[in-house]
């Protein structure tokens, strides 16, 4: 799915060497066991989980504990961060990038708690994570996908410079079925172009 000869594998271990990514309004930091309740409070919402391939629903404290342990394991294939507000430290969501089953390209993923939607947080966090992936790893292409009805996520993906790569199918844990997704890709070359245009 979404394979490419130019794709070099992401090194999740190298990406996890960075503990924090700071943006104008957010701090993306490594998830800690003490975050489990706050993550559960935001993630236990069908309006969030229905759009994510792997998020369980209902989402309980044990799910958060497992996720935190999994993404912090030395062999983890994903680099994940909780997204927090710089001003208060409040957890508003999570994001990550890494190898996912059924995908050749490392995939970008994110979610924001519903009460925090519409503030630009997903885009701001994704920009920081993408910069980190291309800066700290030799990865040549990042993939991203969204359910075909997920217009908000599609918009986030497009605001990050991804280009449409076609229709794909993915197993949805929420639906217990295979569902269609729009697939996107962002090459290092495009990212470099966007960065230099922004600087100019
Ligand atoms: C998708 C999601 C991450 C967006 O988070 P967010 O912080 O609100 O996103 P942003 O504010 O950065 O950007 C959202 C964009 O989508 C647009 N948007 C929101 N709802 C929309 C809709 N129904 N139709 C079209 N565009 C929509 C917003 O206007 C904004 O674009 P703009 O900046 O051009 O105005 C959030 O809704 C979420 O977590 N959803 C559930 C989980 C999920 O879908 N994760 C992604 C899986 S692929």
Spell out the blueprint of helices and strands.
Layout: H1 12-15, E1 20-22, E2 26-29, H2 36-43, H3 46-49, H4 61-72, E3 78-85, E4 91-98, E5 107-112, H5 121-136, E6 141-147, H6 151-159, E7 163-172, E8 177-187, H7 188-199
The structure holds coenzyme A.
Residues 48, 51-52, 110-112, 117-123, 146, 150-153, 155-156 line the site of coenzyme A.
Note down, in words, how this protein is organized.
The protein is α+β, with helices and mostly antiparallel strands and 200 residues long. The protein has one domain (12-194): Aminopeptidase (3-Layer(aba) Sandwich), CATH 3.40.630. Helix content is 32%, strand content 28%. The chain has seven helices and eight strands; from the N terminus they run αββαααβββαβαββα. A five-stranded antiparallel β-sheet has the order 1-2-3-4-5, sandwiched between helices. The protein has a three-stranded antiparallel β-sheet with strand order 6-8-7. The longest helix has 16 residues, at 121-136. The radius of gyration is 16 Å and the shape is globular. The model is unreliable at 1-8 (pLDDT under 50). It binds coenzyme A (COA). Coenzyme A binds at residues 48, 51-52, 110-112, 117-123, 146, 150-153, 155-156.
């Amino acid at each position: 799915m979404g394979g490419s000869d130019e794709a070099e594998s992401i090194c999740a271990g190298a990406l996890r060497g960075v503990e924090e990514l700071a943006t104008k309004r957010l701090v993306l930091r490594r998830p800690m066991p003490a975050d489990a309740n706050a993550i559960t409070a935001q993630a236990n919402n069908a309006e969030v989980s229905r759009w994510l391939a792997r998020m369980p629903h209902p989402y309980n404290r044990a799910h958060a504990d497992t996720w935190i342990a999994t993404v912090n394991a030395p062999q983890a294939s994903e680099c994940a961060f909780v997204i927090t507000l710089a001003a208060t430290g409040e957890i508003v969501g999570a994001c990550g990038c890494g190898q996912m089953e059924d995908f050749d390209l490392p995939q970008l993923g994110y979610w924001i708690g519903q009460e925090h939607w519409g503030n630009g947080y997903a885009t701001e966090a994704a920009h920081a994570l993408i910069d980190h992936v291309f800066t700290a790893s030799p990865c040549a292409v990042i993939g991203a996908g969204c359910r075909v009805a997920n217009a908000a996520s599609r918009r986030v993906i497009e605001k990050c410079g991804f280009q449409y790569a076609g229709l794909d199918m993915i197993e949805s844990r929420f639906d217990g079925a295979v569902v269609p997704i729009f697939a996107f890709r962002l090459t290092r070359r495009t990212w470099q172009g966007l960065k230099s245009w922004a600087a100019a």
